[in-house]
C-alpha cells in the first residue's frame, strides 16, 4: 500500500461535476444577483472568511429563508464559540426545510450494518415530523420549551 504524503491530490471533480455542483449554482447566483464574481473556490473561500457578514447574508438570500421577523444583524457577539447568528430573526425550521422538497423523492437513505438500503421519501419524513409535532403539543410542549431526545441510530 502506498503512503499518502502531503500534497497528493486524492480526487478532482470532472468538468461535468463542477458545472452541475451546488457550489457552482451559488457562485452563478452571486454574480447575477449581487455582482460578485469569483475566479475559483479559493477566491470564494477568501471572501467568505474576510467579509463574513456579506457571505452569510448572501446565503440567507440564496436559500430564500422564510422568516416571520427579519434578522437585525448577521452575526452578533462574534467570539467563537458563542457567536450569535442572525439575531432577531424568527423562523420555522420545518417550513424552510420542507418547502421545496415533497413527494416520493428520497429525503434520507439508511443502511444498517446487517440490513438493506432503506429510502425514506420527503412525504414520509414530512408525515413523521408532523406526527411528532402533534404528539409534543399534546404533551403540553410550548414555544420556548426545550426537548431532548436520545434516539437510536435508526431513521
Note down, in words, how this protein is organized.
The chain has 155 residues and is mainly alpha-helical. It has a domain of 51 residues. 40% of the residues lie in helices and 10% in strands. The chain contains 6 helices and 4 strands, in the order H-H-H-H-E-E-H-E-E-H. The strands form 2 sheets. The protein has a two-stranded antiparallel ribbon with strand order 1-2. The longest helix has 17 residues.
Spans where pLDDT lies below 50 across 5 or more residues: none
Q: How many helical stretches?
A: 6
Shape type: extended
Across the major sheet, the strand order is 1-2
Count of individual beta strands: 4
Task: Characterize the quaternary organization of these chains.
Answer: single chain
Give the SSE order as H and E letters: HHHHEEHEEH
Give the helix proportion (percent range): 40-55%
Mean pLDDT across all amino acids: 92
What's the gyration radius in Å? Answer: 20 Å
Estimated share of beta-strand residues: 5-15%
Roughly how many Å apart are the termini?
37 Å
Structural class, from secondary structure content? mainly alpha
Summarize the main sheet: 2 strands, antiparallel
Amino acid at each position: 500500500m502506498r503512503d499518502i504524503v502531503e500534497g497528493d491530490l486524492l480526487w478532482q471533480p470532472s468538468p461535468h461535476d463542477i458545472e452541475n455542483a451546488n457550489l457552482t449554482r451559488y457562485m452563478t447566483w452571486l454574480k447575477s444577483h449581487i455582482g460578485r464574481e469569483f475566479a475559483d473556490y479559493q477566491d470564494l473561500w477568501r471572501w467568505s472568511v474576510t467579509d463574513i457578514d456579506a457571505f452569510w447574508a448572501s446565503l440567507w438570500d440564496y436559500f430564500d429563508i422564510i422568516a416571520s421577523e427579519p434578522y437585525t444583524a448577521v452575526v452578533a457577539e462574534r467570539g467563537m464559540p458563542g457567536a450569535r447568528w442572525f439575531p432577531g430573526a424568527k423562523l420555522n425550521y420545518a417550513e424552510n426545510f420542507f418547502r421545496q422538497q415533497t413527494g416520493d423523492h428520497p429525503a434520507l437513505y439508511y443502511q444498517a450494518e446487517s440490513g438493506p438500503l432503506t429510502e425514506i421519501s420527503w412525504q414520509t419524513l414530512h408525515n413523521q415530523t408532523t406526527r411528532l409535532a402533534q404528539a409534543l403539543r399534546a404533551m403540553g410542549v410550548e414555544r420556548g420549551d426545550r426537548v431532548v431526545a436520545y434516539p437510536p441510530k435508526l431513521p
